[in-house]
Design a protein that fits this description.
thiamine binding, about 200 residues, 12-stranded mixed beta sheet, alpha/beta, Rossmann fold, ATP binding, about 35% strand
């Protein structure tokens, strides 16, 4: 099963991202989804970022609405994840380009807590990997950061390749902005990686 969470700052919605998915609008993201012609299966949040008229539109165009108390210990996004945490895949659309950087950081922390969650917008994909993988060829650049104190990795098919490299958490920028060339593979021998895939700005 797959769920898609739509946040307030998503600038484009690709309907392919929504196929065969439970669609959840998170706070103002619900209104954002409706403005794109998408009716959420569930809209959830304290809705402190919408006015009364906008909330009426959310209630009218959502199959279900869950209104949260604004005084809470979790963000609206994490509350939405908890609704579907048993799903195989949870994709957060947005949450990268907003004005509040602390919310972006909190969303990154959610990837560590919930390994079935990834974050995506029109230019980037952010996910946690603990097994070897083939990078997504829809993206030109890939950045690898060790989540644990050390990850041992091998990289081939990219501009900068590595063999059994001990990537440490303090190697802050070493894994930044590698370029996918041909038949790329990232082998993770141990540890976990935060993986950020990015598109070429000229092709957006």
């Amino acid at each position: 099963m797959r769920a898609v969470l739509i946040l307030f700052d998503i600038l484009k919605l690709n309907k392919e991202d929504l196929c065969d998915s439970l669609i959840i609008g998170v706070d103002r993201g619900a209104y954002n989804a409706i403005s794109f012609g998408i009716k959420p299966d569930i809209s959830i949040g304290d809705f402190d970022s919408v006015n009364d008229e906008e909330f009426k539109e959310i209630a009218k165009n959502s199959k279900s609405v869950i209104k949260l108390n604004p005084i809470k210990d979790k963000t609206d996004t994490e509350e939405a994840i908890n609704l579907v945490k048993g799903y195989d895949e949870i994709v957060i659309l947005g949450g990268i380009q907003g004005k509040r950087i602390e919310h972006f950081y909190a969303n990154l922390m959610l990837l560590l807590k919930y390994p079935n969650v990834k974050i995506k917008d029109d230019r980037s994909l952010i996910e946690v990997k603990d097994k070897s993988f083939i990078p997504n060829k829809d993206y030109k650049f890939i950045s690898l950061f060790s989540i644990d104190e050390e990850a041992i990795i091998s990289i081939s098919g990219m501009k900068y390749n590595l063999e059994n490299y001990h990537l440490k958490k303090i190697d802050a920028t070493l894994g930044c902005s590698n370029e996918i060339i041909n038949n790329p593979i990232v082998n993770i021998h141990s540890g976990r990686l935060l993986v950020i895939s990015s598109k070429d700005d000229e092709k957006l």
